Amino acid sequence: MSEVGEFVQKPASLYLPFGVGPRACLGKELSVKMMKTVAINVVRRYEVKVVENQRVAMTNKVLSLTTRHGLKVTLKKRL
After folding, report:
1. What is the mean pLDDT of each run of 10 residues along the chain (79 residues)?
2. Which residues have a Cβ under 8 Å from the Cβ of 48 and sit 6 or more positions away?
Protein backbone atom coordinates (compact mmCIF):
# COMPACT_ATOMS: atom_id res chain seq x y z
CA MET A 1 0.00 0.00 0.00
CA SER A 2 1.19 3.49 -0.77
CA GLU A 3 1.12 6.41 1.68
CA VAL A 4 -2.29 7.43 0.30
CA GLY A 5 -3.77 3.92 0.58
CA GLU A 6 -3.43 2.77 -3.03
CA PHE A 7 -2.24 -0.73 -3.93
CA VAL A 8 1.28 -0.74 -5.37
CA GLN A 9 2.50 -3.73 -7.41
CA LYS A 10 6.00 -4.88 -6.38
CA PRO A 11 8.35 -7.17 -8.34
CA ALA A 12 8.46 -10.83 -7.24
CA SER A 13 12.19 -10.57 -6.57
CA LEU A 14 11.47 -8.48 -3.43
CA TYR A 15 10.31 -11.58 -1.55
CA LEU A 16 13.65 -13.37 -1.32
CA PRO A 17 12.51 -16.19 1.01
CA PHE A 18 10.17 -17.42 -1.72
CA GLY A 19 12.72 -17.32 -4.53
CA VAL A 20 11.98 -16.40 -8.14
CA GLY A 21 11.89 -18.11 -11.47
CA PRO A 22 11.41 -21.83 -12.09
CA ARG A 23 12.51 -22.76 -8.56
CA ALA A 24 10.13 -20.45 -6.72
CA CYS A 25 8.40 -21.74 -3.61
CA LEU A 26 5.19 -23.63 -4.34
CA GLY A 27 3.55 -22.32 -1.16
CA LYS A 28 4.22 -18.65 -1.89
CA GLU A 29 0.67 -17.74 -2.94
CA LEU A 30 -0.90 -19.54 0.04
CA SER A 31 1.56 -17.92 2.46
CA VAL A 32 0.89 -14.42 1.13
CA LYS A 33 -2.90 -14.97 1.26
CA MET A 34 -2.66 -16.19 4.87
CA MET A 35 -0.51 -13.20 5.84
CA LYS A 36 -3.01 -10.79 4.28
CA THR A 37 -5.93 -12.55 6.01
CA VAL A 38 -4.29 -12.23 9.43
CA ALA A 39 -3.40 -8.57 8.82
CA ILE A 40 -6.95 -7.75 7.68
CA ASN A 41 -8.48 -9.44 10.74
CA VAL A 42 -6.14 -7.62 13.16
CA VAL A 43 -6.85 -4.23 11.56
CA ARG A 44 -10.59 -4.96 11.48
CA ARG A 45 -10.78 -5.96 15.17
CA TYR A 46 -8.20 -3.62 16.71
CA GLU A 47 -7.05 -0.03 16.46
CA VAL A 48 -3.30 -0.30 15.92
CA LYS A 49 -1.04 2.61 16.89
CA VAL A 50 2.76 2.71 16.71
CA VAL A 51 4.36 3.67 20.03
CA GLU A 52 6.04 7.07 19.69
CA ASN A 53 9.69 7.88 20.43
CA GLN A 54 11.08 4.41 19.83
CA ARG A 55 14.28 3.63 18.00
CA VAL A 56 13.62 1.59 14.87
CA ALA A 57 16.68 0.15 13.11
CA MET A 58 16.65 -2.34 10.26
CA THR A 59 18.78 -5.48 10.38
CA ASN A 60 21.00 -6.66 7.53
CA LYS A 61 19.61 -10.17 7.25
CA VAL A 62 19.74 -11.65 3.77
CA LEU A 63 16.52 -13.67 3.73
CA SER A 64 14.14 -11.40 5.59
CA LEU A 65 13.75 -7.74 6.39
CA THR A 66 13.22 -7.23 10.12
CA THR A 67 13.68 -4.51 12.69
CA ARG A 68 16.53 -4.90 15.16
CA HIS A 69 14.46 -4.13 18.29
CA GLY A 70 11.00 -4.92 16.93
CA LEU A 71 8.23 -2.41 16.32
CA LYS A 72 6.18 -1.65 19.41
CA VAL A 73 2.49 -0.95 18.89
CA THR A 74 -0.56 -0.62 21.10
CA LEU A 75 -3.78 -2.44 20.33
CA LYS A 76 -7.19 -1.21 21.36
CA LYS A 77 -10.17 -3.45 20.71
CA ARG A 78 -12.72 -1.91 18.38
CA LEU A 79 -16.34 -1.82 19.55
Report:
1. 77 72 84 92 94 80 68 91
2. 42, 73, 74, 75
Q: Write the CA distances from 58 to 49, 61, 73, 75, integer angstroms.
A: 20, 9, 17, 23
Residue 12, class by beta-carbon neighbours within 10 Å (0-12 exposed, 13-18 middle, 19+ buried)? exposed
| Three-point CA angle 59, 56, 36, nearest 5° | 80
Residue 75: predicted pLDDT:
94
> In this structure, what DSSP letter does residue 63 have?
S
- 46 in helix, strand or coil? strand
